[in-house]
Write a structure and sequence with these properties.
By secondary structure, the protein is an alpha+beta fold. Helices cover about 40% and strands about 30% of the residues. Bound molecules: zinc ion.
């Protein structure tokens, strides 16, 4: 569980560390605002995905949900990374309610992450709950630790692709998947 008081203290320490006057007008309530913002931005620590599935009724073609926006925090720099996720699967017996996929992404992304793990987290939970014939997850994002600092490559994006089942084995199906993005 996130400790709001400790987040406030951490913010005060940052203000002190950079030599700011934490009592000046503009900063007076900053620790409280910071704490509230981080509680929201890291809400994945306080939530677990709740997944309900439905009978696929024989539908056995690709189901694709694309351009799902997300933002997360790079665990190496505590700086945001943000972008889009595309998820596709070929069901066997079960399908999932459409709104559940963005909800899953929301929970896994609102933690300290790296993009590779985020991609795997999304795929693995859907694989476990749906037991689909095939599944793929593509995450494309900008990392502020790369665009604003360090090498400062403003337009660079990181893309991770992860496949399982017949989407991993079958090249044509994978091309169909990638063609949907
Ligand atoms: Zn980073």
């Amino acid at each position: 569980m996130i400790n709001e008081k400790k987040l406030e203290k951490a913010c005060e320490l940052i203000l002190e560390a950079i030599g700011e006057n934490k009592n000046r007008e503009g900063l007076k309530n900053t620790p409280i605002r910071f704490s509230k913002a981080f509680k929201e931005l890291l809400s994945g620590y306080n939530n677990t995905p709740n997944i309900t599935t439905f009978d696929s009724e024989g539908f056995n073609e690709l189901i694709f949900v694309k351009d799902i926006n997300f933002s997360s925090f790079c665990e190496h720099h505590l700086l945001p990374f943000y972008g889009t996720v595309h998820v596709g699967y070929i069901p066997d017996k079960k399908i999932i309610g459409l709104s559940k996929i963005p909800r899953i992404i929301e929970i896994f992304s609102k933690k300290l992450q790296n993009q590779e793990r985020l991609t795997m987290n999304i795929l693995n939970i859907l694989k476990t709950k749906l037991k689909p014939r095939g599944i793929g997850v593509v995450v494309e994002s900008s990392h502020m630790c790369m665009t604003l600092r360090g090498v400062k490559k403003n337009n660079s994006k990181m893309k991770t692709l992860y496949f399982d089942g017949i989407l991993k084995e079958n090249k044509n199906l994978r091309s169909e998947f990638l063609g949907n993005i």
